[in-house]
Write a structure and sequence with these properties.
about 70% helix, mainly alpha, rod-shaped
């Protein structure tokens, strides 16, 4: 709330005040007939005061307007504009008193009512500000400035729904109402309605033009896009956890439209492509992610996984090497690099990598199974059986346990046959033991 109040206060400070003659946007300023009975004249004093206000000479304006009021104590316009001067000086009590006096003289003077509402708001009386501006806006239902002020105050009061309706009305009446769009963007941003907030701020940029200094707003929009993308990515992860991969993909794709440089969305979308067998699309996402984060070990490993599935073993091996250089504690990286060595028949290197992965994650049954298969290839059946038993101790699923037990039985039979000189059967077949595929983790 503190952030949005600060934004609203900044916005209000720059807003034109309804009822200050030269600031009105819906018609010519109020006029006064000349006072021919006084040489100096209340009208002349009044006009001098207004001119001083235009030049921000506040003390001078107050002096002229006070003298005008002394000559004409029933001049509601002079009270209103002296109130404007006091408000600009930060003297909200005197400003409120002058606006109230203007209303005593002319109860239907809606601009004084609206100005009093803004002075009350600046003083911290949000409830009083809402009351004044609501009534003023009823009387001036087509005044875009008045409606903008009401929308800002309603937002500060915590009624963002009403604020949005009023601000939408304000900008519909004046499509060039920059402050209205700024306020609308602020309310949407506070509600985390990022699409609409960005749309409002983009309108502000367009209305300001290319020559305006919009560096602050451009920075806000850039940050808002990042925040929006983070929210979309979070929603995508939640959808993925609920089993809705299509929705997750849609959300991550939308996140990347909002912020094409979001590494996490590229990584996770790539992993879904990889899991679905769309390795080419996965590779494209991983390549884009690595261009943005060239020192990210995980990205090298998941790209290596995709390259492995595409039978591009040399490229995959290079990526696994890079991933493990950047993160020597990546158990999955060692396991998956071991698979390539295993595929190529370099069982010693495969065993070294499987052993490293087991030392890092001793409760991962897959690592034991892969090392067991490498031991089978080296005709070290006892070590293979030992690893399969370790794998068995780390799983609870009955189907998976039955599968591992079948492997133990097959390797035990092989070991028994190998003790009979005339019945050696050679290396295990794929039906006796199966190498585990590369593992994938989603963060």
């Amino acid at each position: 709330m503190r952030n949005i109040l600060f934004f609203l206060a900044f916005l209000i400070a720059s807003m034109p005040l309804s009822g200050f003659p030269q600031s009105r946007q819906d018609g010519p300023p109020p006029t006064k007939e000349a006072d021919l009975t006084n040489p100096e004249g209340a009208v002349t004093l009044y006009n001098n005061g207004v001119e001083a206000l235009k030049q921000s000479k506040l003390d001078e304006a107050i002096g002229f307007l006070s003298r005008a009021i002394k000559l004409d104590p029933r001049d509601h316009l002079a009270y209103n504009n002296r109130g404007v001067a006091y408000k600009r000086k930060g003297d909200y009590d005197r400003a409120i008193a002058d606006y109230t006096k203007a209303l005593e003289i002319k109860p239907d003077y809606a601009y004084a009512l609206g100005n009093r509402g803004m002075a009350r708001f600046r003083k911290g009386d949000v409830e009083g500000a809402v009351a004044d501006l609501t009534e003023a806006s009823k009387r001036l239902s087509r005044d875009s400035v008045m409606l903008t002020n009401l929308g800002v105050v309603l937002s500060a009061a915590g009624d963002s729904g009403a604020a949005i309706k009023v601000l939408q009305r304000a900008v519909s009446l004046n499509r060039k109402n920059i402050r209205g769009y700024e306020a609308l963007g602020g309310v949407y941003e506070h509600r985390k309605d990022y699409d609409k907030a960005l749309d409002a701020y983009e309108k502000v940029l367009a209305l300001r033009g290319k020559d305006a200094d919009s560096s602050d707003l451009n920075a806000k929009i850039a940050q808002l896009r990042k925040d929006f993308a983070v929210e979309l990515h979070r929603e995508g992860l939640e959808s993925y956890r609920q089993g809705n991969q299509k929705k997750a993909m849609d959300l991550w794709s939308k996140a990347l439209k909002v912020n094409p440089r979001m590494v996490a969305a590229l990584r996770d979308r790539g992993l879904i492509y990889h899991k679905a067998g769309k390795h080419k699309q996965a590779l494209e996402d991983f390549n884009d992610a690595l261009r943005l984060a060239p020192s990210n070990a995980e990205l090298y490993r998941v790209r290596a996984d995709a390259l492995y599935k595409m039978n591009k073993f040399d490229n995959a091996l290079a990526d696994y090497d890079k991933a493990l250089q950047l993160n020597p504690n990546d158990a999955i990286g060692y396991n998956n690099r071991g698979l390539i060595y295993h595929e190529r028949g370099d069982l010693d290197k495969a065993l070294a990598d499987y052993s490293k992965s087991i030392s890092l994650e001793p409760a991962n049954s897959t690592f034991y199974e892969n090392r067991a298969l490498a031991y089978v290839g080296k005709r070290q059946e006892e070590k293979a059986i030992e690893d399969y038993r370790s794998a068995l101790n780390n799983v609870t699923d009955d189907k998976q346990r039955s599968h591992i037990q079948a492997k133990i039985d097959a390797v035990t039979a092989m070991a028994n046959r190998s003790t009979e000189p005339s019945d050696s059967t050679g290396p295990a077949t794929s039906g006796e033991a199966t190498k585990q595929a590369p593992e994938e983790k989603k963060n």
